[in-house]
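Ticket closed. Logging final result for Cytochrome P450.
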Amino acid sequence: MRDYGFGCRSEKQENMVERQVQDILDVLRGRRLDADVFKNGCALVPNFFCHIFLNAFWKMFCGDTLSHEDHAFTKHLVQLGFGFQRSTDATGLALGITPWLRYIAPGKFGIRQMRLSNGKMIESFQKSIDEHLETYSEDHMRDFIDIFIREMKSRESDSEDIQFTVEQLIVVGLDLLLPILTTINATLGYLVHYLVRYPHVQRKVQQELDNVVGRDRLPTLDNRPRLPYIEAAIREVMRIRPIIPLGVAHRAMEDGYLSGYFVPKDSM
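Final structure:
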Protein backbone atom coordinates (compact mmCIF):
# COMPACT_ATOMS: atom_id res chain seq x y z
CA MET A 1 0.00 0.00 0.00
CA ARG A 2 3.02 2.28 0.30
CA ASP A 3 3.00 2.50 -3.50
CA TYR A 4 -0.26 4.43 -3.17
CA GLY A 5 0.69 6.85 -0.40
CA PHE A 6 0.06 4.84 2.79
CA GLY A 7 2.76 5.47 5.39
CA CYS A 8 4.67 7.75 3.03
CA ARG A 9 4.16 10.74 0.79
CA SER A 10 2.87 10.16 -2.72
CA GLU A 11 3.19 12.96 -5.26
CA LYS A 12 0.54 11.34 -7.44
CA GLN A 13 -1.93 11.16 -4.54
CA GLU A 14 -1.18 14.71 -3.40
CA ASN A 15 -1.75 16.03 -6.92
CA MET A 16 -5.06 14.18 -7.04
CA VAL A 17 -6.20 15.77 -3.76
CA GLU A 18 -5.04 19.19 -4.94
CA ARG A 19 -7.14 18.90 -8.10
CA GLN A 20 -10.17 17.92 -6.01
CA VAL A 21 -9.65 20.86 -3.64
CA GLN A 22 -9.39 23.22 -6.61
CA ASP A 23 -12.63 21.78 -7.93
CA ILE A 24 -14.34 22.52 -4.62
CA LEU A 25 -13.02 26.09 -4.68
CA ASP A 26 -14.46 26.53 -8.17
CA VAL A 27 -17.85 25.45 -6.83
CA LEU A 28 -17.63 27.90 -3.92
CA ARG A 29 -16.70 30.71 -6.30
CA GLY A 30 -19.85 30.07 -8.28
CA ARG A 31 -18.25 28.70 -11.42
CA ARG A 32 -20.43 25.63 -11.15
CA LEU A 33 -23.44 24.76 -9.00
CA ASP A 34 -23.90 21.19 -7.82
CA ALA A 35 -27.44 20.61 -6.63
CA ASP A 36 -26.41 17.59 -4.56
CA VAL A 37 -24.21 19.68 -2.26
CA PHE A 38 -26.16 22.96 -2.22
CA LYS A 39 -29.54 23.93 -0.86
CA ASN A 40 -31.00 27.43 -1.13
CA GLY A 41 -27.57 28.74 -2.11
CA CYS A 42 -25.80 27.23 0.92
CA ALA A 43 -23.26 24.42 0.88
CA LEU A 44 -24.42 21.27 2.67
CA VAL A 45 -21.79 20.22 5.20
CA PRO A 46 -20.39 17.55 5.45
CA ASN A 47 -21.82 16.42 2.06
CA PHE A 48 -19.81 19.16 0.39
CA PHE A 49 -16.49 17.47 1.23
CA CYS A 50 -17.42 13.90 0.38
CA HIS A 51 -16.44 13.88 -3.28
CA ILE A 52 -12.84 14.99 -2.75
CA PHE A 53 -11.86 12.22 -0.32
CA LEU A 54 -13.92 9.50 -1.96
CA ASN A 55 -12.28 10.28 -5.29
CA ALA A 56 -8.76 10.07 -3.88
CA PHE A 57 -9.57 6.70 -2.31
CA TRP A 58 -11.40 5.35 -5.37
CA LYS A 59 -8.45 6.19 -7.62
CA MET A 60 -6.00 4.40 -5.32
CA PHE A 61 -8.20 1.36 -4.69
CA CYS A 62 -10.11 0.88 -7.95
CA GLY A 63 -8.06 2.90 -10.45
CA ASP A 64 -10.99 5.14 -11.44
CA THR A 65 -11.98 8.70 -10.64
CA LEU A 66 -15.57 9.72 -10.08
CA SER A 67 -16.73 12.65 -12.19
CA HIS A 68 -19.39 15.08 -11.04
CA GLU A 69 -21.79 13.14 -13.24
CA ASP A 70 -21.25 10.31 -10.72
CA HIS A 71 -22.67 12.37 -7.86
CA ALA A 72 -25.61 9.99 -7.50
CA PHE A 73 -23.19 7.11 -6.83
CA THR A 74 -21.10 9.28 -4.48
CA LYS A 75 -24.18 10.39 -2.57
CA HIS A 76 -25.38 6.79 -2.36
CA LEU A 77 -22.08 5.61 -0.84
CA VAL A 78 -22.01 8.50 1.63
CA GLN A 79 -25.56 7.73 2.77
CA LEU A 80 -24.59 4.10 3.27
CA GLY A 81 -21.49 5.08 5.24
CA PHE A 82 -23.38 7.41 7.55
CA GLY A 83 -26.17 4.87 7.86
CA PHE A 84 -23.63 2.32 9.04
CA GLN A 85 -22.07 4.78 11.48
CA ARG A 86 -25.38 5.96 12.92
CA SER A 87 -26.40 2.38 13.55
CA THR A 88 -23.66 2.20 16.19
CA ASP A 89 -23.58 4.00 19.53
CA ALA A 90 -21.22 6.23 21.52
CA THR A 91 -19.12 3.28 22.64
CA GLY A 92 -18.37 2.19 19.09
CA LEU A 93 -20.96 -0.60 19.23
CA ALA A 94 -22.58 -2.17 22.28
CA LEU A 95 -23.07 -5.37 20.33
CA GLY A 96 -19.30 -5.81 20.22
CA ILE A 97 -19.35 -6.21 24.00
CA THR A 98 -22.64 -8.01 24.44
CA PRO A 99 -23.44 -9.65 21.07
CA TRP A 100 -26.40 -11.57 22.50
CA LEU A 101 -28.40 -8.29 22.53
CA ARG A 102 -29.00 -8.66 18.79
CA TYR A 103 -31.39 -11.52 19.52
CA ILE A 104 -33.40 -9.52 22.07
CA ALA A 105 -33.81 -6.11 20.42
CA PRO A 106 -32.15 -6.00 16.99
CA GLY A 107 -33.94 -2.79 16.03
CA LYS A 108 -32.75 -0.93 19.14
CA PHE A 109 -29.05 -1.52 18.56
CA GLY A 110 -28.91 -0.79 14.84
CA ILE A 111 -28.10 -4.31 13.69
CA ARG A 112 -30.65 -4.21 10.86
CA GLN A 113 -29.46 -0.85 9.51
CA MET A 114 -25.86 -1.96 9.86
CA ARG A 115 -26.44 -5.12 7.84
CA LEU A 116 -28.35 -3.21 5.16
CA SER A 117 -25.67 -0.52 4.73
CA ASN A 118 -22.84 -3.02 4.95
CA GLY A 119 -24.44 -5.29 2.36
CA LYS A 120 -24.90 -2.51 -0.19
CA MET A 121 -21.31 -1.28 0.24
CA ILE A 122 -20.10 -4.84 -0.29
CA GLU A 123 -22.09 -4.93 -3.55
CA SER A 124 -20.27 -1.80 -4.77
CA PHE A 125 -16.86 -3.35 -4.08
CA GLN A 126 -17.85 -6.71 -5.52
CA LYS A 127 -18.81 -5.11 -8.83
CA SER A 128 -15.44 -3.37 -9.18
CA ILE A 129 -13.51 -6.49 -8.10
CA ASP A 130 -15.38 -8.64 -10.64
CA GLU A 131 -14.46 -6.17 -13.40
CA HIS A 132 -10.81 -6.31 -12.32
CA LEU A 133 -10.78 -10.10 -12.30
CA GLU A 134 -12.12 -10.15 -15.87
CA THR A 135 -9.55 -7.64 -17.18
CA TYR A 136 -6.59 -8.53 -14.96
CA SER A 137 -3.13 -8.55 -16.56
CA GLU A 138 0.02 -9.64 -14.77
CA ASP A 139 2.01 -7.10 -16.77
CA HIS A 140 -0.01 -4.04 -15.83
CA MET A 141 -0.82 -3.18 -12.21
CA ARG A 142 -3.48 -0.49 -12.32
CA ASP A 143 -4.36 -0.08 -8.65
CA PHE A 144 -4.58 -1.72 -5.23
CA ILE A 145 -7.12 -4.31 -6.37
CA ASP A 146 -4.75 -5.54 -9.08
CA ILE A 147 -1.87 -5.84 -6.61
CA PHE A 148 -4.09 -7.78 -4.21
CA ILE A 149 -5.25 -10.09 -7.03
CA ARG A 150 -1.62 -10.74 -7.99
CA GLU A 151 -0.81 -11.75 -4.43
CA MET A 152 -3.97 -13.83 -4.24
CA LYS A 153 -3.06 -15.74 -7.42
CA SER A 154 0.49 -16.36 -6.19
CA ARG A 155 -0.94 -18.13 -3.12
CA GLU A 156 -3.60 -20.22 -4.84
CA SER A 157 -1.66 -23.42 -4.16
CA ASP A 158 -1.76 -22.76 -0.40
CA SER A 159 -5.16 -24.05 0.68
CA GLU A 160 -4.64 -22.84 4.26
CA ASP A 161 -3.94 -19.22 3.33
CA ILE A 162 -7.06 -17.22 4.17
CA GLN A 163 -5.48 -13.74 4.18
CA PHE A 164 -5.65 -13.16 0.43
CA THR A 165 -9.17 -13.86 -0.80
CA VAL A 166 -11.86 -11.81 -2.51
CA GLU A 167 -13.75 -11.70 0.79
CA GLN A 168 -10.69 -10.33 2.57
CA LEU A 169 -10.17 -7.73 -0.18
CA ILE A 170 -13.73 -6.50 0.37
CA VAL A 171 -13.10 -6.25 4.13
CA VAL A 172 -9.92 -4.22 3.50
CA GLY A 173 -11.89 -1.92 1.20
CA LEU A 174 -14.61 -1.40 3.80
CA ASP A 175 -12.04 -0.70 6.53
CA LEU A 176 -10.58 2.05 4.35
CA LEU A 177 -13.83 3.39 2.92
CA LEU A 178 -15.86 3.90 6.10
CA PRO A 179 -13.52 6.49 7.70
CA ILE A 180 -13.32 8.32 4.37
CA LEU A 181 -17.10 8.50 4.04
CA THR A 182 -17.81 9.41 7.64
CA THR A 183 -14.96 10.31 10.00
CA ILE A 184 -13.04 12.74 7.78
CA ASN A 185 -16.15 14.47 6.43
CA ALA A 186 -17.77 14.77 9.86
CA THR A 187 -14.56 16.20 11.35
CA LEU A 188 -14.34 18.80 8.58
CA GLY A 189 -17.99 19.61 9.13
CA TYR A 190 -17.35 20.30 12.81
CA LEU A 191 -14.27 22.35 11.87
CA VAL A 192 -16.37 24.60 9.62
CA HIS A 193 -19.00 24.86 12.37
CA TYR A 194 -16.50 26.07 14.96
CA LEU A 195 -14.71 28.43 12.57
CA VAL A 196 -18.07 30.10 11.88
CA ARG A 197 -18.92 30.10 15.58
CA TYR A 198 -15.57 31.63 16.58
CA PRO A 199 -14.67 34.21 13.91
CA HIS A 200 -11.55 35.36 15.77
CA VAL A 201 -10.12 31.84 15.34
CA GLN A 202 -11.14 31.90 11.68
CA ARG A 203 -9.25 35.17 11.21
CA LYS A 204 -6.10 33.71 12.81
CA VAL A 205 -6.31 30.62 10.62
CA GLN A 206 -6.65 32.81 7.52
CA GLN A 207 -3.79 35.06 8.63
CA GLU A 208 -1.45 32.11 9.12
CA LEU A 209 -2.33 30.75 5.68
CA ASP A 210 -1.76 34.16 4.08
CA ASN A 211 1.61 34.59 5.81
CA VAL A 212 2.95 31.10 5.06
CA VAL A 213 1.26 30.10 1.80
CA GLY A 214 -0.12 33.27 0.27
CA ARG A 215 -3.20 33.44 -1.95
CA ASP A 216 -1.69 32.43 -5.27
CA ARG A 217 -1.53 28.68 -4.63
CA LEU A 218 -2.86 25.88 -2.43
CA PRO A 219 -0.99 24.71 0.69
CA THR A 220 0.95 21.43 0.54
CA LEU A 221 2.32 19.03 3.14
CA ASP A 222 5.63 20.91 2.86
CA ASN A 223 3.90 23.86 4.56
CA ARG A 224 2.54 21.84 7.48
CA PRO A 225 5.48 22.43 9.90
CA ARG A 226 4.93 26.18 9.51
CA LEU A 227 1.17 26.06 10.17
CA PRO A 228 1.01 25.25 13.91
CA TYR A 229 -2.12 27.31 14.62
CA ILE A 230 -4.12 25.51 11.94
CA GLU A 231 -2.87 22.16 13.23
CA ALA A 232 -3.91 23.14 16.77
CA ALA A 233 -7.36 24.26 15.57
CA ILE A 234 -7.98 20.93 13.83
CA ARG A 235 -6.82 18.95 16.85
CA GLU A 236 -8.99 21.02 19.19
CA VAL A 237 -12.06 20.30 17.07
CA MET A 238 -11.23 16.59 17.18
CA ARG A 239 -10.94 16.84 20.98
CA ILE A 240 -14.23 18.70 21.45
CA ARG A 241 -16.18 16.64 18.92
CA PRO A 242 -14.69 13.15 18.74
CA ILE A 243 -16.54 10.91 16.29
CA ILE A 244 -16.72 8.07 18.85
CA PRO A 245 -16.73 9.85 22.27
CA LEU A 246 -15.98 6.81 24.40
CA GLY A 247 -13.64 5.07 21.98
CA VAL A 248 -14.02 1.65 20.45
CA ALA A 249 -14.43 -1.12 23.01
CA HIS A 250 -11.80 -3.86 22.90
CA ARG A 251 -11.87 -7.43 24.11
CA ALA A 252 -9.01 -9.91 24.43
CA MET A 253 -9.60 -12.72 21.93
CA GLU A 254 -7.17 -15.11 23.63
CA ASP A 255 -5.17 -15.40 26.87
CA GLY A 256 -2.04 -13.27 26.74
CA TYR A 257 0.47 -11.08 28.55
CA LEU A 258 0.94 -7.32 28.45
CA SER A 259 4.00 -5.78 30.15
CA GLY A 260 4.29 -8.89 32.31
CA TYR A 261 0.61 -8.89 33.35
CA PHE A 262 -1.64 -11.83 32.48
CA VAL A 263 -4.70 -10.80 30.44
CA PRO A 264 -7.30 -13.60 30.33
CA LYS A 265 -9.48 -14.20 27.30
CA ASP A 266 -12.61 -11.99 27.06
CA SER A 267 -11.09 -9.25 29.27
CA MET A 268 -12.48 -5.80 28.41
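Residues 2-197 form a domain with the Cytochrome p450 fold (CATH 1.10.630.10). No further action required.
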